[in-house]
Specification:
mainly alpha
Length: 134
C-alpha cells in the first residue's frame, strides 16, 4: 500500500504538493504585494527556497544510494543543471521579446518551476529509497 501511495505521488506531483510550505509562503508573499514587481520578488524567494529544498533532497538521496547509484545521480544532476541553465536562457530570451509586464511574472514562474519540479522529483526518489530500506 505504501508503494501505491508513492507511485501516485510520482505520477501526480502537483496534486501532492498543493500545501507545500514553500508554496504557502509564496501565496502569502503574493497576497502582501500582488503587483508585477511583488510577484517577481515572490518567485525569486520561492526559487531560493526550492533550490535549498533540492539540495537537501539531493544529499538525502545520495546518502541512501550505493556507489553506482551515487555516480548515476551525480551524472544526472550535472545533466539537469546544464538543461536548467539552457532552459532558463531560452525562457528569458523568449519572454524578453513579448510585450506586457505580465510576461515578467510568467518568466519568473517558469524559472522557479524548473527547480521546484526537480526538488520534488529528488524528494520522491529519496522517500522511495528510505521506504525500501525499511
Amino acid at each position: 500500500m505504501k508503494y501505491l501511495a508513492l507511485v501516485f505521488l510520482l505520477i501526480c506531483p502537483t496534486l501532492a504538493q498543493d500545501d507545500h510550505p514553500i508554496d504557502v509562503q509564496f501565496n502569502k508573499d503574493v497576497d502582501k504585494n500582488g503587483s508585477t514587481h511583488g510577484m517577481v520578488a515572490a518567485y525569486a524567494n520561492a526559487l531560493k527556497s526550492w533550490d535549498n529544498e533540492l539540495n537537501k533532497h539531493y544529499e538525502k538521496l545520495m546518502a541512501g544510494l550505493d556507489a553506482a547509484g551515487k555516480a548515476n545521480l551525480k551524472d544526472s544532476q550535472r545533466a539537469w543543471i546544464v538543461y536548467r541553465d539552457k532552459e532558463i536562457h531560452n525562457i528569458v530570451e523568449y519572454y524578453a521579446k513579448v510585450e506586457g509586464t505580465m510576461f515578467r511574472t510568467i518568466s519568473a514562474a517558469a524559472k522557479t518551476n524548473l527547480t521546484k519540479n526537480r526538488a520534488l522529483s529528488l524528494s520522491y526518489m529519496a522517500d522511495f529509497v528510505e521506504i525500501r530500506k525499511k
